[in-house]
Specification:
This protein is of the alpha/beta class. The chain has 19 helices and 18 strands. The protein is elongated, with a radius of gyration of 27 Å.
Length: 528
């Protein structure tokens, strides 16, 4: 693509200097929410990913919550080498003892003690007076200090706490030994301007402010978590608490990938940056989605499927001339292999010509004019025109006839808790391959069987089925995106049976890989 050099992310050439610490709480605030729980193995895998990503502090869990949480924190603490591992504890002796024990083998350890400070929480949740909350805070920090390398103190519901009282509690926590003071917007209530004012005020009124790091922890109830976190950074916060994909209580926590990329793209504006290895952002997001079974919305900033995809003709034309026209960061900066120009009914001649050229079918103007109406007709019928469709159009063939693999037979059966599938395939070189596999359901089973038969692993990034037509004539269209060799490959298939449609979609991807990367496909087959 032309003009790759200008990404548009250089706000005036000032150097970003200050380090904003990234405190990841995916495995604590994120994991404790409905739909996102993970077992111990999954937590460890995610923790290792977060260390590779370069988070400064990783909140691994709340050891007093359950023996399993304790074991998960202990295992993560023992395994991670460079990242500070943090354990959460209420301002209670038992919690802090558990946190200390869980962190015993950590290379770098932090205990995060918290207590509610707002009037509503003091009265209805804790039944404690201001003085009792203050005393409990000091005692907790003093106890934690002896059990780990560093102590963080959080005033839960800080943003709805009387500012003078909050400053008094923070001053006492700092005097007792806390080196990070966290002011959570627990219920996502403040606006960016207010949160900036609050941090500025706290930094001016907390005694010992110059010796501590102020931290923001924002929830997304009004959709302001990232904006609020960045406003806090603008007002001097030097730690931000966030989660991958923004998972967390209710509407979630601030999304780590959004904060990190805002700091990177607009570093000169903030005068600060994180130390995150941004090309690991997309892999971390994908891993979390896989481990929790919760897909990332297409339009999610930074890591959603549409974040670097363009379909409209006007945008595609602009992108082909200069990528800075519609992209302010490079997909590679967040770990996505390349920009996708999705070919669909909104696309124009320029993108069609460019894609056909990449696929090895350069067309002159007359040939393009002849093909364009057929492309538009196909795009009207289906959501997206894949590379397979384009090659078939260019060669005047049916996509399924392109091969080299063809589906000869498919059988599935479902049973309680799973399904099995068997496939028979024919290859253009004369081979036949018959394989069977079991899976969570018939779709999973048929994908596994095709992987075995073709020797081509399918790392599925996206799978959707939609109905075409209505009533007795309705057909299912399966749309599949799989990753291979740091690229996304797209395929679709149509049939009256959605499992068969899926098989065609999968074969279209396998075929495409084999036609365009035959060596990789052969190597994959040899390894299976
Ligand atoms: O949202 C919150 O207040 C919290 C605290 C425990 C830090 O998660
Ligand atoms: Zn929280």
């Amino acid at each position: 693509m032309a003009n790759q050099q200008h990404s548009g992310h250089d706000d005036g050439g000032k150097t970003a200097v200050d380090h904003v610490r990234i405190f990841d709480t995916t495995l604590r605030d994120g994991e404790q929410t409905p739909g996102f729980s993970m077992d111990r193995r999954a937590k460890l895998r995610m923790a290792q990913m977060l260390e590779a990503l370069g988070v400064d502090v990783l909140e691994a869990g709340f050891p007093q919550a359950s023996p399993d949480d304790f074991a998960a924190v202990a295992q993560i603490a023992e395994t991670l080498k460079t990242t500070t591992v943090c354990a959460l504890a209420r301002c209670q002796r038992g919690d802090i003892e558990s946190a200390g024990r869980a962190l015993e083998k950590a290379h770098h350890s932090r205990i995060h003690v918290f207590i509610s400070t707002s009037p509503l929480h003091r009265e209805f949740k804790l039944g404690m007076s201001k003085q009792q909350v203050l005393d409990a805070s000091i005692a907790a920090v003093e106890q934690a200090r002896g059990l780990c390398d560093e102590v963080e103190f959080s005033a839960e519901d800080a943003t709805r706490t009387e500012p003078e009282y909050l400053a008094e509690v923070f001053s006492a926590a700092a005097a007792a030994g806390a080196t990070t003071l966290n002011a959570p917007d627990t219920v996502g209530y403040l606006t960016p301007t207010e949160i900036a004012e609050r941090f500025t005020w706290l930094r001016a009124h907390v005694k010992g402010a110059e010796n501590v790091v102020f931290s923001a922890h924002c929830h997304d109830d009004l959709g302001l978590a990232v904006a609020n976190s960045l406003a806090a950074v603008g007002a001097g916060a030097r730690q931000v608490e966030c989660t991958i994909n923004g998972i967390g209580e209710r509407a979630g926590n601030a999304a780590l990938e959004e904060i990190v990329m805002a700091l990177k793209v607009r570093g000169a504006w903030f005068g600060a940056d994180s130390r995150i290895r941004t090309p690991q952002l997309y892999p971390a997001s994908r891993l979390l989605a896989q481990l929790t079974g919760q897909p990332v919305p297409r339009n999610k900033a930074i890591v959603g499927a549409n974040a670097f995809a363009h379909e409209s003709g006007i945008h595609q034309h602009g992108m082909l001339k200069h990528r800075g026209t519609y992209e302010i960061m490079r997909p590679q900066d967040v770990g996505i292999a390349e920009t996708t120009l999705v070919l669909g009914k909104h696309s124009g001649r320029a993108a069609l010509r460019q894609r056909l050229e990449v696929l090895g079918h350069p067309l002159d103007d007359a040939a393009l004019d002849a093909l364009f109406p057929r492309f538009k007709a196909l795009a009207d019928q289906q959501r997206e025109v894949t590379d397979d469709d384009l090659e078939a159009l260019a060669l005047g063939k049916e996509p399924r006839a392109l091969g080299p693999w063809h589906l000869v037979q498919l059988d599935t059966s479902t049973h309680l808790g799973g399904a099995s599938a068997s496939v028979k395939l024919r290859h253009d070189d004369g081979r036949t391959a018959a394989e069977a596999a079991i899976g969570d359901g018939p779709v999973d089973a048929v994908l596994r069987a095709i992987e075995r038969a073709t020797g081509q692993p399918l790392d599925v990034a996206e799978f959707q089925v939609r109905a075409i037509g209505a009533g007795g004539d309705a057909r299912g269209q399966a749309h599949l995106v799989a990753r291979h060799d740091a690229r996304e490959w797209r395929g679709h298939g149509t049939s009256t049976d959605i499992v068969e449609a899926t098989a065609h979609a999968a074969l279209s991807i396998v075929n495409h890989i084999e036609r365009h990367a035959p060596h990789a496909a052969a190597a994959a087959a040899a390894n299976l």
